[in-house]
């Protein structure tokens, strides 16, 4: 009886992200692509704001992609956040060619501020236009990205719109761990309920690409309200929602692409740096370990154990565990098809989730021990 209950529990845990993903994928739409709306949005003035620290390998490509947009109502402001490489020099080279680009230097980081949040706050204060597009320095935009995002925000009457770019992955660690972004987002966030409610509990976003109305940004105190956090993807939408503002997310894979990390060390450190403000928080670490482990790890492990066990296993248990195992592989299949992810994301899905959870627990333990994760030379 206990084994039957356990097997049924695994079927439910494995089925949850499948059901959620099948419901969420049609709702996770791309930005508006209606030419009339895009033309109207082309008259809007937008400030593209890029915080850059040690980004010499990516900043030129990011700027060149933005400057494909021919509008003169565009300004691009880059803050060189005390870089130790050629970031500032490269921005100055582009600035000399296109007057729409402007470089601002950082000031010493005030106590209590995270580096990126302070850079974004100062960039917003330097902006002249009514729309603020916060962009990570490793994101590259298509030529129609800005007008489509503007059209989408206006059509949906949003205060903040956050897009999830197409994630480029090359190393094994990237192929295993980066696709879990979509697994967690689409497998456990009820998008329909998020859009019906302004509750902060449904806050979601991606800090790589965020478009905000400037008046709304200042009304909720923008990045200053989340000054100490590293997790702007979740915390900035929460700040907007706490002031009864409308936020939303969208699939930006057709208008933006990004390669966040370039090796295993960067992937692990990148996941560690803001884990305790997300899944590795005191409140979520155990529930999500059960949800993710029960959905992706235990079904495969349990079925394999049943198959090779020398002890006789009742037939109905084989069936239940087989169903749970099949369900556990459906989410990576769905995300692979939709977002053109690597086959490794499917084949190694249970190992990927196990690795991901181990990183979350490592982050939680480090936090309990008072240890901080450094990122780009800052703790």
Topology (SSEs and partners):
Blueprint: H1 2-24, H2 35-41, E1 46-52, H3 59-66, E2 74-80, H4 87-97, E3 101-105, H5 115-126, E4 131-135, E5 139-141, H6 145-156, E6 160-167, H7 172-177, H8 180-188, H9 191-196, E7 209-213, H10 214-219, H11 232-241, E8 247-258, H12 264-273, H13 285-308, H14 315-339, H15 344-347, H16 349-368
Helix pairs in contact: 1-8, 1-13, 1-14, 2-6, 3-4, 12-16, 13-14, 13-16
CATH class of the largest domain reads Alpha Beta
The average pLDDT value, as a whole number, equals: 92
CATH topology description of the largest domain: Spore Coat Polysaccharide Biosynthesis Protein SpsA, Chain A
CATH 4th-level superfamily of the largest domain: Spore Coat Polysaccharide Biosynthesis Protein SpsA, Chain A
Task: Identify the strand order in the major beta sheet.
Answer: 3-2-1-4-7-6-8-5
**Helical residue percent?**
40-55%
Report the principal-axis shape. globular
Level-2 CATH architecture of the largest domain? Alpha-Beta Complex
Number of DSSP-assigned strands: 8
Radius of gyration, CA atoms, in whole angstroms? 22 Å
The amount of beta strand, in percent, is: 5-15%
Report the order of strands and helices: HHEHEHEHEEHEHHHEHHEHHHHH
Low-confidence stretches: none
Oligomeric assembly:
single chain
Give the distance, in angstroms, between the N- and C-terminal Cα atoms.
50 Å
Give the count of helical stretches: 16
Q: How many domains?
A: 2
Structural classification: alpha/beta
């Amino acid at each position: 009886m206990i084994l039957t209950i356990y097997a049924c529990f695994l079927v439910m845990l494995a089925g949850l992200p499948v059901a959620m993903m099948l419901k969420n994928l049609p709702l996770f739409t791309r930005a508006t692509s209606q030419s009339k709306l895009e033309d109207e949005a082309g008259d809007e003035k937008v400030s593209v704001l890029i915080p850059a620290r040690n980004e010499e390998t990516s900043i030129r490509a990011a700027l060149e992609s933005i400057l494909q947009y021919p509008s003169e109502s565009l300004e691009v402001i880059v803050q060189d956040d005390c870089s130790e490489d050629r970031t500032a020099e490269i921005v100055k080279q582009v600035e000399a060619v296109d007057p729409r680009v402007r470089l601002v230097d950082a000031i010493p980081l005030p106590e209590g501020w995270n580096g990126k949040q302070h850079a974004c706050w100062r960039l917003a204060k330097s902006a002249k236009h009514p729309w603020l597009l916060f962009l990570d320095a490793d994101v590259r935009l298509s030529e129609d990205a800005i007008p489509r995002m503007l059209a989408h925000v206006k059509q949906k009457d949003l205060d903040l719109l956050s897009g999830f770019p197409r994630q480029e992955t090359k190393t094994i660690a990237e192929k295993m761990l980066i696709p879990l972004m979509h697994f967690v987002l689409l497998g456990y966030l009820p998008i329909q309920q998020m859009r019906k409610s302004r509750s902060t509990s449904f806050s979601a976003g991606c800090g790589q690409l965020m478009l905000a109305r400037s008046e709304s940004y200042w009304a909720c105190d923008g990045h200053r309200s989340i000054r100490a956090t590293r997790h702007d993807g979740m915390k900035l939408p929460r700040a907007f929602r706490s002031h009864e503002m409308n936020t939303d997310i969208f699939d930006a894979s057709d208008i933006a692409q990004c390669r966040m990390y370039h090796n295993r060390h960067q992937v692990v450190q990148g996941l560690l740096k803001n884990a305790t403000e997300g899944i590795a928080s005191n409140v979520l670490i155990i529930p999500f370990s059960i949800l993710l482990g029960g959905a992706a790890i235990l079904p495969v492990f349990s079925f394999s154990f049943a198959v090779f066990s020398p002890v006789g296993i009742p037939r109905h248990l084989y069936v239940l565990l087989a169903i749970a195992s099949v369900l556990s592989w459906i989410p990576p299949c769905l995300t692979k098809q939709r977002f053109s992810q690597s086959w490794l994301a499917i084949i190694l899905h249970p190992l990927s989730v196990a690795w991901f959870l181990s990183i979350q627990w490592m982050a939680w333990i480090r936090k309990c021990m008072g240890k901080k994760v450094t990122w780009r030379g800052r703790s």
